[in-house]
Design a protein that fits this description.
alpha/beta, globular, two-stranded antiparallel ribbon, 11 strands, disordered C terminus, 336 residues, 12 helices
């Protein structure tokens, strides 16, 4: 492996102790790699920044290469990671950028495995890890791009329909070996700087969800591919900052992000078709629940929220929503 530089960005939102655990694990795995860790506090407002800053200054594991910065606003996942990347790139150049969730902890050899893979595969734009829970159960983190068929299948959850639409199912079976995928969850993802310079950073219109999907799609359209690297393993708790596991109702930002993804990348007609397909699938699932006495799986009022959000958004906007996709090239200007 030739000498390369690596920037690791960890975003914190009111989980300082867990974020420090993730940073310690990353620092351990970056021994021998020329790099830096930037922890971005996304305007937690709970003393997180002060806690993280004090720990980074005094901890032996930090070795003077952990920088804690304050974003100044909670703009979401993409905006926070963008802030960290731009902050570090204004000071020096890095060949690769690694984003790590605050509740994700790289296992032994995981970061090096991603780095080795990306150097061996020069057309690979993004590479992600095999993610498992603390109980070693694998997490679904490899996916196909969303589509009208995928919206119908994912909402209906009916065996015969899933078999008919098997090439549209968004979650892929957990790969047993390193393989090419459409997109990866951003809990542990390495990115090539050259790709970000070409396509831009995360679209900050997305507050949370669909931002990785959009980024990987933009990379694919620019001629880069995304790989799932099986021998890079990361332990992930999941949903600590978002509270997704305890949602009683889908938040507004989920609907905003979903609709923005379809409108931006496929147009308004396709977005309408995808929303209708999801609604039809949800109705089919509700019918199946009644007939088969299946348990409730969707959050309360989901169908109403989905359709009312689409109708309101259509009346508010007559064209595609503007994207807020910062460029990475400002780093050169900032260093001058």
């Amino acid at each position: 492996m030739k000498d390369v530089s690596l920037l690791t960005v960890i975003l914190n939102w009111r989980t300082p102790e867990m974020t420090l655990k993730a940073a310690r694990a990353a620092a351990r795995e970056m021994v021998g790699i020329d790099g830096q860790i930037v922890i971005v506090d996304n305007d937690s407002g709970d003393g997180s920044f002060e806690t993280l800053h004090a720990a980074a200054l005094n901890a032996d594991w930090a070795e003077g290469r952990v920088d804690v910065v304050q974003s100044g606003r909670n703009g979401g996942f993409g905006a926070g990671n963008n802030f960290g990347m731009r902050h570090a790139m204004a000071q020096r150049e890095f060949d690769f950028i690694y984003i790590l969730n605050s509740d994700a902890f790289p296992d032994t050899g995981s970061i090096k495995a991603l780095l080795d893979h990306m150097q061996a595969m020069p057309t690979c734009g993004f590479a992600g890890s095999y993610i498992h829970g603390e109980d070693d159960a694998p997490h679904l983190t490899a996916f196909r791009f969303p589509s009208v068929g995928g919206e119908l299948e994912g909402a209906a959850r009916i065996g015969v329909l899933s078999r008919a639409l098997h090439t549209h199912i968004v979650p892929l079976p957990i790969p047993a070996e390193t393989t090419r995928v459409d997109w990866l969850a951003g809990a542990s993802m390495m990115m090539r700087r050259q790709v970000l310079e070409q396509i831009g950073l995360f679209d900050e219109t997305f507050f949370l969800y669909f931002e990785e999907t959009d980024l990987c799609l933009r990379a694919q359209r620019a001629g880069w591919h995304t790989d799932y690297v099986r021998n890079s393993e990361v332990t992930h708790i999941g949903s600590v900052s978002t509270g997704m596991k305890t949602w009683k109702r889908k938040p507004q930002y989920w609907f905003d992000s979903r609709l923005h993804y379809f409108r931006k990348n496929h147009g308004m007609v396709y977005a309408a078709a995808a929303t209708l397909a999801h609604a039809i699938g949800t109705c089919l699932w509700k019918l199946r629940r009644v007939i088969g006495r299946k348990p409730q799986r969707d959050p309360a009022y989901f169908l109403w929220d989905l359709m009312s959000h689409f109708v309101k958004s259509t009346f508010r906007r007559t064209s595609r929503e503007p994207s807020k996709t910062p460029s990475l090239t400002v780093r050169k200007e900032a260093r001058q």
